[in-house]
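Supplementary Note 3. Input sequence used for the single-chain structure prediction.
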Amino acid sequence: MSFELPPYPYDLLNPYRMIANDHPGGVVDLSVGTPCDPPPPEVVDALAQSGSERSYPQSVGSYPYLESCLQWMKRLFDVDLDVETNIAACIGTKEFVVSAPGYLRLLKPDKDTVLYPAVSYPSYAMGAHLSGCRAVPVPVNEHWQPQLSDIAQSDIERALMIWVNSPSNPTGVLNNLDPIADWGREHQIPVFSDECYAEFTWADKPRTILSKGTEGVVAVHSLSKRSNLAGLRAGFYAGDVELVRWFKEIRKHAGKMVPGPVQAAATVAYSDDAHVVEQRSKYRQRLLFLQSCFDSMGISTVFPEGSFYLWIDSGSQNPWELVDHFASKVGVLVTPGSFFGSPRHVRVAAVQPLETLDLITKRI
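The predicted structure, written as discrete structure tokens, is reproduced below.
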């Protein structure tokens, strides 16, 4: 049977966007986690003035770019990596997430199963489907932590890889990554850790799967959130020497290249932390403001351990009913938890400036 391609999830929100947009001032879009704030001006200057647009960029990433990534990893996580063997560039992290199973299966054709948290970013499962693999969700407990002990032995034996995401999109929880890395090594299953919200960690210090070594693990990072550069599509993957080497070589053949000007701009972005401190403050303010808005509507919320999302229990309501309620009553567009594997939650992204969010208060 041919693969039946499902509708793109966010296209399903278009009718509710139209409803919300009828309010004076228009829709307050809190659905997609897309940044609204300007990136550092020096990054934009580097993008325009690199002079690197004439020639093909290195697929693995330029030395200055990769070195800036490694120095950032050292500052944030206190991990030491080698620029030649432990790291390479990717065209934003969604591209890597979706393509990784297919490329890895060429290396391990006897494995066909991608494990991922049952409530998580939908691209983990979609990457498996688009690679002709089995997408097998790992049950999560009441704290949204993956329950590795619940994975069937038959799925462990067929597992090509397992995804983990901390801080989690959509739940905002922090995963204890060291036991997951140990589990992967014990079962010889590569652990891929999506850490793109690491700098927006509120309940503890930022975490990485690489904290106790690189064997059998790969961390994936992006500039989209930390530096408001989702449009540049710049990221990197780092970790196990053999896994990184394989992805480097196969991605050369596939023509996967971060554009030269983007790498120049990304080098500047990863070399500076001050703008991220300012961005953290903005997201924290917005999360607290949104909590107060929902509290005034009689809706209970919990501040996340990390990320810039509120994960709201819809109770006895179907989450689509809550999506409709927010759109029609206060002109707010949010995302149903069904996009992420939960039948009773909605996700709210704190991705609008306070002056836009203030429209919610006026409408309430």
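The chain is about 40% helix and 15% strand. The mean pLDDT is 96.
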